[in-house]
Amino acid sequence: MKKKLTEELNRISIEEYKIMPKNKIIIVADNIRSLNNIGSMFRTSDAFGVEAIYLCGISATPPNKEIHKTALGAELSVEWKYFKNTEDAVNSLKENGYTICVVEQVKNSVPLNEMLPEKTKKYAFIFGNEVNGVSQEVINMSDLALEIPQIGTKHSLNVSVTTGIVIWEFFKKYK
């Protein structure tokens, strides 16, 4: 095996990325405090053709050098919007026909590996604050709660890791 050169990766330009068809999913950041986590969400969203990221509440927005350190330019390719509160973002998504999926440990949640996305539907995945998770008000507005099954002692993952797992699981099933 030999590591691929950058030229062999067939990377597209930001302009090409912006006009290519996207997966019908939107990532919602519900008061994410870490700029590194925001940057990582952008980078993962770029990698898998996410339609947009909605940054809500205390979540930082580009341009920001701390976001850029992790996003590595993906904050320029992935569309994003800012909402003062997550409830407004959820209402906008509902008005536009998105199925609202909160990623949180709640009663009657669906294990992520059991979720079967419908190709005709549009999905919004909501990820919560690193300490408090997704707010109960936003959970109450959601159509579905997804949970990543875990067996360790923490039952807690970093929000950017959780975002990556959810996007990848969706991407595998949706394609």
What features would you highlight for this structure?
seven-stranded parallel beta sheet, alpha/beta, 175 residues, 7 strands
List the uncertain runs: none
- Tell me how many strands there are: 7
Broad structural category: alpha/beta
Q: Report the major sheet.
A: 7 strands, parallel
Straight-line distance between termini: 28 Å
Strand and helix order:
HEHEHHEHEEEHEH
Oligomer: single chain
Helix count equals 7
Helix content class: 25-40%
Structure description:
It is a single chain. The protein is an alpha/beta fold and 175 residues long. The chain contains 7 helices and 7 strands; from the N terminus they run αβαβααβαβββαβα. It has helices at residues 14-19, 35-47, 65-71, 74-77, 86-95, 136-141, 159-174, and strands at residues 23-30, 50-56, 79-83, 98-103, 110-111, 122-128, 144-147. Strands 3-2-1-6-4-7-5 form a 7-stranded parallel β-sheet, with helices on both faces. The chain is globular and about 50 Å long.
